[in-house]
Write a structure and sequence with these properties.
Mean pLDDT: 92
Number of domains: 3
CATH topology of the largest domain: Rossmann fold
Strand content: 15-25%
Helix content: 25-40%
Structural class: alpha/beta
CATH superfamily of the largest domain: Class I glutamine amidotransferase (GATase) domain
CATH class of the largest domain: Alpha Beta
CATH architecture of the largest domain: 3-Layer(aba) Sandwich
Number of helices: 15
Number of strands: 19
Bound molecules: xanthosine-5'-monophosphate
Radius of gyration: 26 Å
């Protein structure tokens, strides 16, 4: 596993032993303005040298260091050149490797614990003074079964906790540190300060990783790579492809050709908004294709959700390929792949961290087109993608837009997709989002939308009984979209939305609000 091409500034290498928190380590480091990459512990020596990190972090992981076949520690990282910080499993692996002892505790410790500082260290000294308005600045988050029982030679214990006699250890001369707890988890009150000290006081990094530098560096990389070639990009209206479009436009201007496919399953005004933003405002070449009939025709009579997804994916490829054939010579296909997709699909943590359900954005294109793949934001986390989007001049409403599934309203009309149903759900959805924005609640919700239920329910319209369709509203709060809770929206807001939908959208006589959590329900209804 070799790291991607690093930037020419300070950087940290993270060896991933499979903890569910590894991405949080990377984000903690990047939020402090230092670039880092996550790699498998099996990384080649040469790749470490090429990457030339300022320091190395060993993540936590679910294995026990006393098991057989534990993942390796690349010994080069211990040759004195790099400061090293082991977290949880990473600490235990270091301790064992360097001649200490690790025992399996009778019970796993999971939850908050309080540190007692025991000897001086750059990493932890004076943390008790940094209260940030909290009661207990030395509170940390533990999640471990094993613990260090005997220090390796030359190490000192710099903190203890009730359950861990060596909660933090250090070899100050060799600049090797181990933490039994997880500073990357927000429940570790001074976790950020600990990362700050590791990066700036121990690894002597400088903070360069910010939106404006990222953009400059990416623009330069893209120009170097693409030269005078032409690049094709499928623009979906989502954040990632929007940022890629703006970035490529800045880097190569007219050499970028965007294709926007109207599949008939888009949200209200989506095409108009994309056109206004990219073509009119930024001056990007956008080829808009109306393929509504093709998609809706292919979906006719199909009600199985997975079959609908397959059809939408297949027709998209056909339409996109045809468009690609009509734009003259192109050499590259750009995609909005981002870092979490890379980490998950490279399987760096797979088999160790929990398997995560991933969705392909528009899926499957590169194999069908004989083009080089350009993925300019593949090293960025979502929050970084948003930051550079703002830096590139994209509107906040685009950059902070809720995610929208690739198959669009196709999976928000339950069962068979008909044009009439799509029109109903599109209008209802627009009303819901408009009211949410109006109430200034859009940003406090992770995703909100309307779903069309193809069942009829009785209602009274005027003096007559009407027998019409049902709309369900869904609004969720989530951090990672793997689990989600329904949003407690104010009753007055829901009342307004329901009454507007019933009054303004023909064919709807009832509105319900979905109060299921994920799991067991999913966010989408199909
Ligand atoms: P679920 O419904 O699985 O959704 O809880 C989790 C997140 O994934 C989105 N989603 C999709 N995105 N293609 C996509 O590009 C799909 O087929 C798809 N299905 C669900 C969903 O909107 C939510 O953000």
């Amino acid at each position: 596993m070799s790291p991607a091409m690093p930037p020419d500034r300070d950087r940290i290498l993270i060896l991933d032993y499979g903890s569910q928190y590894t991405q949080l380590i990377a984000r903690s480091i990047r939020e402090l303005g230092v670039y880092c990459e996550i790699v498998a512990p099996e990384i080649d020596t040469d790749d470490i040298k090429t990457f030339a990190p300022n320091g190395v972090v060993l993540s936590g992981g679910p294995a026990s260091v006393n098991d057989e076949d534990t993942p390796p520690i690349p010994i080069e990282i211990l040759d004195g050149r790099y400061p090293v910080l082991g977290v949880c499993y990473g600490m235990q692996a270091l301790a064992l490797h360097l001649g200490g002892g690790v025992e399996t505790a009778e019970e796993r410790e999971y939850g908050p614990a309080r540190l007692t500082l025991s000897s001086q260290s750059v990493l932890l000294d004076g943390l008790e003074e940094i209260t940030n308005g909290v009661d207990d600045p030395l509170q940390v988050w533990m999640s471990h079964g094993d613990r260090v029982s005997e220090l390796p030679p030359g190490f000192v214990t710099i903190a203890t906790s009730p359950n861990a006699p060596h909660a933090a250890i250090a070899h100050p001369e060799r600049r090797i540190f181990g933490l039994q707890f997880h500073p990357e988890v927000t429940h570790s009150v001074n976790g950020r300060e600990i990362w700050r000290r590791f990066l700036f006081e121990i690894c002597l990094c400088q903070s360069h990783w910010n939106a404006s530098n990222i953009v400059d560096q990416m623009v330069e990389n893209i120009r170097g790579k693409v030269g005078n070639d032409r690049v094709l990009l499928g623009l979906s209206g989502g954040v990632d492809s929007a940022v890629v479009a703006a970035l490529l436009h800045r880097a190569i201007g007219e050499q970028l050709i965007c294709v926007f496919v109207d599949n008939g399953l888009l949200r209200k005004d989506e095409q108009k908004d994309v056109q206004a933003m990219f073509a009119d405002h930024l001056g990007v070449n956008v080829l808009a294709i109306n393929a509504q009939d093709q998609f809706l025709g292919a979906l006719s009579g199909v009600s199985d959700p997975e079959e609908k997804r397959r059809i939408i994916g297949r027709v998209f490829i056909d339409v996109f390929q045809e468009a690609a054939g009509n734009v003259g010579r192109v050499d590259w296909l750009a995609q909005g792949t981002i870092y979490p997709d890379v980490i998950e699909s490279a399987g760096i943590a797979s088999g160790k961290a929990k398997v995560i359900k991933s969705h392909h954005n528009v899926g499957g294109l590169p194999e069908h087109l004989d083009l080089n793949l350009l993925e300019p934001i593949r090293n960025l986390f979502k929050d970084e993608v948003r930051q550079i989007g703002l830096e590139l001049g994209l509107a906040r409403s685009v950059v902070f837009r809720h995610p929208f599934p690739g198959p669009g309203l196709g999976v928000r009309v339950l069962g068979e997709v008909r044009r009439e149903y799509i029109e109903i759900v599109r209008e209802a959805d627009a009303i819901f989002l408009e009211e949410l924005r109006q109430a200034q609640l859009y940003d406090s919700v992770s995703q909100a939308f309307a779903v069309f239920l193809p069942v009829k329910s009785v209602g009274v319209v005027g003096d007559n009984r009407a027998y019409e369709y049902v709309i369900a509203l869904r609004a969720v709060e989530t951090v990672d979209f793997m689990t989600a809770d329904w949003k407690r929206l104010p009753a007055e807001l829901l009342t307004t939305v329901a009454s507007r939908i019933i009054n303004e959208v023909r064919g709807v006589s009832r509105v319900t609000y979905d109060i299921s959590a994920k799991p067991p329900a999913t966010i989408e209804w199909e």
